[in-house]
Amino acid sequence: MRATTPVVIGIGASAAVVLAALVQSAGSDPMSASSAALSLAVPTAYRSLIEDAGHTCPEISPNLLAALLKQESGFNPKAESPVGAQGIGQFMPLTWEEHGVDGNGDGKNDVWDPEDAIPASAKYLCDIAKDVKDVPGDKQSNMLAAYNAGPDRVKQYGGVPPYKETQNYVRTIKATANAAPPNGTPAGTGQAAIALQAAQKMLGAPYSWGGGGPSGPTKGICCSPNGHSGTSITGFDCSGLTLYAYAQAGIRLPRTAAAQYAAAEPVNPGDMRPGDLVFYGSSASTIHHVGIYVGGGWILNAPRPGTKVRYDPMDTMSDLFAVARPTHAKEI
User: Fold this and answer.
1) CB 175 within 8 Å of CB 18
2) Per-residue pLDDT at 330 exceeds 70
3) What are phi and psi of 266, to 5 degrees?
4) Number of H helices and number of E strands within the chain?
5) Under the phi-then-psi rule, with left for phi > 0, alpha for psi from -120 to 50, and beta for the rest, what region is 74?
6) CA diameter of the chain
7) Which CATH number fits domain 189-326: 3.90.226.10, 3.30.70.100, 2.40.160.20, 3.90.1720.10?
8) 3 φ, ψ to 5°?
9) What is the pLDDT of residues 260-303, one digit of tens each?
10) Parallel, antiparallel, or unpaired: how do β-strands 277-280 and 289-295 relate?
């Protein structure tokens, strides 16, 4: 069985819903995905590996494989879940023992090595596609559900199991695989500096759920410190702050934290720089918070109701998921 709760290792850490528009646009034909070129934002180090492995069988594609790896680990080869899933493909040890491969020919099957784990993920997808080929319903959905919950559960329920986590997992990966590629390149250091400076000018602004836009703080609904809700207040929520900051640098971000992650390019922990966005959640589909990395293990963020825009340590929340660099959605 698969586990889908990656934990980012090495940057101070151990949700938000699937973007509805992406879910609605996801295709159900497995062959439509298998014919697509790799258009998702993928770390350069893994692009050729995913391109090659994405053609292992007709049921998968480079885009589908990239979407799965992004969902599983945020492209973090050191990710480890609380239940023991390991590496960029989040293999449980027994699953790796059976399905791991020596992708780079160095004589070792290393779950922590993307050169082994990426082709192993593709091979495992192809193996389970064969295993569940006689199950009714959408073949691609059944394959992804089997990667997450295990082939036996897919056979038991005659399709995607009635587990909310697995159902969200399948929808998110298919939506991501079929989404249009980002328009433009990742934010440069100059744009990141402008965004960070803009956010710093908002230090002390009150938290306002749903607040914040390209022009600055807006009215939203905020809870008072003692928990009473319904107070209208002008300020920012977490993604409203990042949206505003990057708008000042000429980059329009989506509105929610989960959508901002989906439209960003993942960054390896060692390549982080000020201005990158830091995301929190147990998976890509459960991201619930975002902050702006300022360096030294700190972020600038609008934390929660009853607080103000402030600096916090990156490990202020235990479910740090990934770091990513904004890309142009639209020039403003």
Assistant:
1) yes
2) no
3) -60, 145
4) 12, 8
5) left
6) 62
7) 3.90.1720.10
8) -120, 145
9) 888 888 888 888 999 999 999 987 778 999 999 999 999 999 99
10) antiparallel
Amino acid at 73: S
pLDDT tens for 313-326 read 999 999 999 999 99
For residue 298, the Cα-to-chain-centroid distance in whole angstroms is 20
Contact 300, 199 (CB under 8 A): yes
Residue 107 has pLDDT above 70, yes or no: yes
**Residues with a known catalytic role:** 238, 289, 301
- The answer on pLDDT for 101 being more than 90 is yes
**DSSP characters over 133-147:** TTSSS-HHHHHHHHH
Q: Determine which of 80-89, 219-228, 239-248, 323-332 has the lowest per-residue pLDDT on average.
A: 219-228
Q: Which CATH number fits domain 20-178: 1.10.3720.10, 1.10.10.10, 3.30.565.10, 1.10.530.10?
A: 1.10.530.10
Q: What is the pLDDT of residue 328?
A: 66
For the chain, give every domain's residue range.
20-178, 189-326
| Cβ-contact 174, 140 below 8 angstroms | yes
Q: CA 64, 33, 61: angle at the middle one, nearest 5?
A: 50
pLDDT at res. 42:
82
Q: What is the DSSP string of 49-79?
A: HHHHHTTSSTT--HHHHHHHHHHHHTT-TT-
